[in-house]
C-alpha cells in the first residue's frame, strides 16, 4: 500500500501549473505538525459552534448581494476548467484503482464488533486522504449502541470540510466505509483484495460505500490539480456503521447541527438503475414505521410445567393478533393502509415495465421456491418500491436462545415494520394499526393486556422533479453517460440515513446513480464494471461544476460573518496578484463581442433568438462594459 | 454463621452413648486431612467404576441369601430405635433451624450467573455437613450450558454416599440448594435471613430445596445419634442448577451411572398437598415434548427495506402456522392429542373437587384479568394436572433485542412445548404434531420450507399404587401426620429431573409430600409452617425405618463383590464385641416365647390365627432356636 507521503509527492509533481505546484509543495513540506498545516491553508472560523445568527446579511462586502468581478471570473474559470477535469480523470484511472485497492483491504465489517478496529483504520485512512486534499477533518466518537458492548476502539464518525469561498454553494456528501460480512468460501478470490478481471473490479464494498467514496475523492483530486481549487464548498460525513443502521449517528448529527448550517445540498450515491441504459435520478425516499405489539399477562414469567393451560398466554395471544395483520398471501390486512398512497402514472408504469429485472434470477439468488407476484414484473416492482409492505421482525421478551427453557413468558412484544411510500404519514398509519389491533383484540376475545407502540417512524419523502437543482443534476449525469436521465417518483429509495439527514438539515437531497443492476450489489463475489467507477467519478466532478452554476444563498442569517470568511479562492486570487476588476471587464467585453460576431456569422439562426441572447448577455454585463458597448454603438451608427 | 468445626463439636457432645461419642471425637480429631478421615471409616470400594458385573451372586457370605443373626438383630434394633429417633427430632428443632438459617444465607440464585460462587459455597457447606455425618462426598464439575458463559467458579454437582451394610436397601435422595431470584422490595424482611414469626419461617428457599434438604440432614443426624448407624444405605445428589433446568446434570448422571448401580429407590420431595389435611403421595409424573417449528426462506437474512413484500417471509408463515396450533380459547387444535390420555376416575374427580384451591387467589397473585376455566375448579385443576396443555415459548432466529433492526429473518424457529400426562407417548404426540403442521402448510399454501423438530422429549410416568414400596411410604407418612394418606395418579408431578433419573437408573420413584398449599411456595415472602418442617424431618426418619423393612436385593450382579463389602454396621458390630450369634438366638427365643405366652393369654383371639402366627414365627426362627423349642416340647410332653 502506498503511504500518504508518497501519494502527496506524486500528486504535487503532477500538478499542472507552477503556482499550484508551489502551493502543494509548501503544504506538503509544512504537513507536520498536521494542525498547523490545516489552519495555515483554510481560514474557516474555528468557533462555528458559538455563532449568533444575525437577522439578515450584515456584511458590506457580501459577494451575493453585489457580485464582484472576482466572483464572476471564478464562475468563468470553472466553466473553462470543467473539460480539463474530465480529461484529467481519464488519465488518473490508476490513482483511482490504487485508492480503491487500499480501501478494499480494510476488513471493515460493521456487523462484526471484533472488526471495529478495521473500520477505525479505514476512517483514519480517509481522514489522511482528505487532509492531503486540503480538507479540514474532525472525528468524533459516537455513543455506543447498548447491544454492542465494545468499548475501545470506539466507534466514530468523520466530518470534513473544504471551504473555497462564501460565494459558492456548499455540498454535503454522505459516504460510508463499512461493508457487509463475507462468506469467504463463496468467493472466487480474496474479498478484501481488489481484483481486476474482464473489465470488472472484484472486492467487498466496490458496489457500495468504498467504491462510491473513491469517486468523490478522485473528482476532488482532479479538480484541485486542474483548477487548484474546488468549484463549490464541500462537507463530508463519513460513516463506519452504515450497514448496522448508523446507530448513534442520528443523535450525533443533531448535537452537531452547527456543522450543517451552511449546507445547500446533500448528496447520496444510490444503486437505482432500472434498465441499465438510462441513468435514474430518483426524487423520493421511502419511510417506515416500526411497531411493537406488547401483550402482557401475569406480573412475572411462569414455569410452563406449573402454569401451562391455566393462564391465557401472552405468546399465544400475540400469535393470534399478529396473524391478523397479513393474510395467507402476505397481503396487509390493515383497512385503509393504501389510502394515501401515490398511484403510478402511465409513464411510471412504463418505466417499471421496461425495467431489466428478472424475478427468476432474484429467486434463484435467494434460493427460494416462490416469490410474491413473480409472474407480474410490474406488480412485483411496485411492491418493491411504490407500495407499503409489512415485515415481521421477531419477538422481544420470549425465549430466543437455542435449547429448551420451560419458561412461560408473561410480557412479549411482537415487532413488525411497515414500509411507507409517498404520501403516507407515520401518524396516520400508526392510528390505522392501533385501530386494527383493538378490533382484533375484541374479535379474538383476547384477555391479556394489549399495547401498540410506535418504536420508530420516519416519514417518506418526495420532492419536485422540476427544480433547478434536479435539472442541474440531470445535466451533470447526462454529460457523462450521454443518455437521457429519467427522473421519477416511482422508485423511492430506502436510505434511512437520508430521511434522517433531510429532516435534520432540511436541505434538498440529490440521489446520484452509482452501480448498475448488472453489477453484483452486496453479493458474494461483489463486482462492478471499471467503466462505471470512472463514470461515477466524472459525474461527481461534473456535479461540482453544475452545482456551482446555481445561484448561492447568503448564509449570514445562519452563520455569523459568513460572507466575510476568507476561503481558498481568495488566497489564490491574492497569490495571482492580478487586478481582478480590470481582467474581468476585459474578459467580459471580449466574450460579448466574440459572441455577437459569431451570431452575425450565422444567418440561419432566427433573429429573435439572437436578439434575446444578446439582450440577456447585455443585461448580465458589468456596467463598465455596457458603457463601452454604448460608446461603440454610437460610434458605428 | 457457625462453622463446620463448632457444629462437629456440638454434635459430638450431644451423642448418646459413649461408643458413638468416642467414634465421633475420633473422626473429628482426624478430620484433617479429609480424605484419610473419610476412608478410615467407610470401606466402600474406591474403584467402583472398574467393576465387572458377575452373572449372579458369588459371595459365600451373602447376607441376603442366608440372613445371618447380625442381619436379624439389626432389623430388630432399627424397630426399637425408631421411636427414640422421632423423640430426638423433637428435641433437635434448634439444630434444624440453625441448619436452615445457614443455608438460607447463601444467595444461591442459579438464574443469575454472577451468583454462581454463592451456589458453590452452599454446595461446599453441604459437603462439609455430610462429611460430618460420616458421608463420603464427591463434587464434580458439570459441562457448562453454552448460553451461560461463566468459566470460574465452575458449576458443580455434589454426590455423597453412606454405606451401612450390603444387607440394607439403598435410597438415593435428590436435593437442590439453588433458589429463584427475589424481588427485594416485595419482601418484608431480608429474603436471605431466616426469620421465625407466628409459627412461620420466612426466607428464600424454605419451601423448596433448602427446607427439604434440612429435613434429610436432621433425620440422618438423629438416626446417627440414637442408633449410631443408619437403617439404610443412603446416596445423595445435591444439585445447584435445579431452577435453571439442571442443565448438564443429565449428561453427568449418564456418565457416572456406576454411582447409581446399587440404588433401590429414589426419593424426591414435592409440594403436592391438595386439601391441606390429607398428605398426598402422587404416583405419576408429567412428561413433556418440546418442539421447534423451523420455517426457512432464503439462504440469508435480508434487509427489510430492500426485500419486504417480495419474498414470502418465514416469520409471517411461522405466525400463521403457530396460530393453527391453538384456538382463540387457547385449546389445542391438534387432532387426536387427547386419545391416549388417562381419564379421571370418580375418586380422582372427588379428590380434585375437594381441593383447597381458590382460582381467584391464583388470579390475584398473578395480576391477571381472567384465567382459563376459572369458574370450574375441577376443570381448572384437570388442566393443571391431568390434561395435555400447550405453551408457546418464543422464536429463535428472529430479532429479539430491544430497539429496531431492519432485518428480515430468513430462518426462524417457533418453539412450543406440550405437557404430556400418563399414558401419552412422546413419539405418538410428535407424529400428531408433524401431521397437523403438514396439514396447515397445505391448507395455508405456505411456500417457505417447513421442518418440525422434536427438541426434547420426556415420557410421562405412572406406577402402581399397590406396591409394597408405596405402602411403606404411606405408613411412614401416616405415622407422622396421623391422617389417611391419599395415593393418586390424578396429580402427576412436574419434576423433569425425576423423569430423567427414573429413565437412567430405572428405579421406583418416591414422591414425599413437603410444603402445604397454604405455604407460600416460590413466592415473594416465601414462608412455611415450622411444624411442617419438623414433620417433614420425622417423615424422612420414618421413611428410613420403613424402607429398611423391605426385603433388599443382592447387588452382586451389578456391583462386583457387593456382598463382601464392609460397611458401618459391621465395624460397629465388631466394636460392640459381642457374640452376635449367641445374642441373636437368645433374643429370638425370648421374643418367641413371649409372643406365644401373650397369645395364650388372649382367649378371644381365634385359635387359627394364633396357630398361624406361631407357625410363621417358628419357620422364621434360626435352626438353633428350633432345636431348643423341640427339646422343650419333648420335655413338656
From TrEMBL, chains A, B:
InterPro entries: Cyt/Met_Dipeptidase, Peptidase_M20
Keywords annotated in UniProt: Hydrolase, Metal-binding, Protease
Biased composition (Basic and acidic residues): 16-25
A molecular function GO annotation: peptidase activity
Superkingdom of source: Eukaryota
Gene3D superfamilies: 3.30.70.360, Zn peptidases (3.40.630.10)
EC number: 3.-.-.-
Coiled coil: none
Top-tier EC class: hydrolase
Protein's name in the database: Uncharacterized protein
Organism for this UniProt entry: Drosophila mojavensis
Native organism taxonomy: Eukaryota, Metazoa, Ecdysozoa, Arthropoda, Hexapoda
Gene symbol of the encoding locus: Dmoj\GI21918
